[in-house]
Amino acid sequence: MKLNPTFSKLAILAVVSLLLCLVLAQIGGLVHERQMRQREAARSVEQALAGPQALAGPVVARACKEHWTTLAPDNKTEVVASRVFWLVAAPARLQVSGGVSPEVRQRGLFKVNTYATQLDMQAQWDSLVLPAPKAEQANGRLNCGEAQLVVALSDPRGIRAADLRLNGQPLRALPGTPHPSYNGLHAPLPELKAGEPLQVSLKLSLVGSQRLGLVPAAGDTQVNLQSSWPHPSFGGQFLPLAHEVGVSGFAARWAVSSLASTAVADLQAGKPLAAAPRSASPYGVDEGAASGGLDVMAVELIDPVNPYVMSDRAIKYGLMFIALTFVTVGLTELLTGRRVHPVQYLLVGLAISLFFLLLLSLSEHLPFLVAYLIAAVAAAGVLTQYAAAMLGGWARGAAFGGGIALLYGALYVLLSREQTALVIGAVLLFAVLAVVMMLTRRLDWYRLGAESLRQGE
Predict the structure, then answer these.
(1) Are residues 296 and 322 in the same domain?
(2) Could you give the CA distance from residue 406 to residue 305 in angstroms, rounded to a whole number?
(3) Using CB atoms within 10 A as the burial measure, which of 237, 354, 406, 439 is most buried?
(4) Same domain, 116 and 216
(5) NCBIfam families from the entry (predicted)?
(6) 164 near 174, Cβ under 8 Å?
(7) pLDDT tens for residues 227-263?
C-alpha cells in the first residue's frame, strides 16, 4: 500500500518545522545568554560605583540596653540576659528636593544607567521628644545612650559630600550609623532640651545605579525630583501625586502622611532598607511591606527599548512566522500546481529564523528600530528573489516578498504595542485563517488526494 504523497509531504514538513524550532530555541538561548551578561555588567558597575540607592532619615535615635537576671536551664544558676533596642523620633515634616542627573556607563557592549543626585533635605521637629524607654522584664534595668542624628543609606559608598546643619549650625557627619540594621551616616547631637523645636538640613551629593528610593519616615513627607531622563518608571508603595514626563525629562512630586505609612515604626523595629525590587520581573511586586522592608517612594531610570527584551519577545513569534510562510507556499502549490521541494521549505524557514539572529547582533550596535529595518529588508530581499525562482516568476516572488514585509511590519507593531499585542496578534491570525479558508473553499480535498496517489503510481 502506497502512502498518500500529500500526507508524506506534510510529515516531512512537520520534521522541517521541528528542526526550525530547534534553530529558534538556540537563538533564544543566545538572547538569554546576552541578557545574563548584561546583568553581570550591571553588577560590575554597582560593585565599582554604587548600587541602587534607598535613603531613610534624618531621624533622631537613641540606643538603649536592658539587663535582667534569669535562671539557667538547671533552674539553679542565675545568668544576666540583655537586649538592645532603639528609640526613634521622626520629624514632623520632611521636605526633599533635588535633581537626578543620568550617567550612562559602558561595560563592553552593555550599557548601565547610573545617576548623580543632589538632594536638599529639610527636617523639622516641632518639639523633640524621644519615646520613654520601657523595660520588658520585671527586674529589668535600662541604660540609654546619647541621642544621635541618623541617616540610613542602602549603599553609603555612593556618598560624595554631605553638608549637615542643626538649627543653622554646622554639624559634623560621621560614617556609618550606631544602629546595627542600617548603614549610612550619623552625627552626635549636643545637649538638647526636651520639647524644644529642632530643624535639620542636609545637602547630600549621592551617586547610584538605576534606582533611587526615599523612605517617608516623617509625619508629613514632601518630595520633589527633576531629571533629564525621559523614561522614568515610578515604583515603591507610593506613586507620585503629580508628574510630567517628556522628551526633555521628568518632574515628579510625592506627598505621604504617616497615617498612610508604617515607615517610622518599621524603622524603629529595624526592618531592612531595600534598594531594588525583590521580584525577578522589572514590573513585578515591589519591595517594602510585601517583602518585609521599609515603605519607599522610588523612581527607576529604565530603557524602554532594551534590545535583548525586544529580541526575546520577537523570537516568541518566530514559529508563527514560519507557519504562516509555509501556509502561503503550500497555498501557492495548491492553486498553481507548482511543486516546492521540502528542502526549499527548509531554506525559507532558515532565512526567517536567521532574521532574529541578525536582529540581535545589529541591535547591540545600532538603535533597535534601525537594526530591525536592516534585518527585515535583508530577509525580505533574500526571500523575494528566492521565491521568484521557487514559485516560477517574479510576480509571485514579489507578492511573496511583500507578504513577508507585511509580516515584519506586523511584528514590529506587536513589539511596540505591549499592552495591545495580544489583541493585534489574535486579529492577525484570524484574518490569515479567514483568507486561507476563502482561497480554499472550492478545493475538493478528496479529489486532490486521489490525484496525488495517481501521480505517485
Answers:
(1) no
(2) 22
(3) 237
(4) yes
(5) PRK11715.1-1 (NF008712)
(6) no
(7) 999 989 998 899 999 999 988 999 999 999 988 988 9
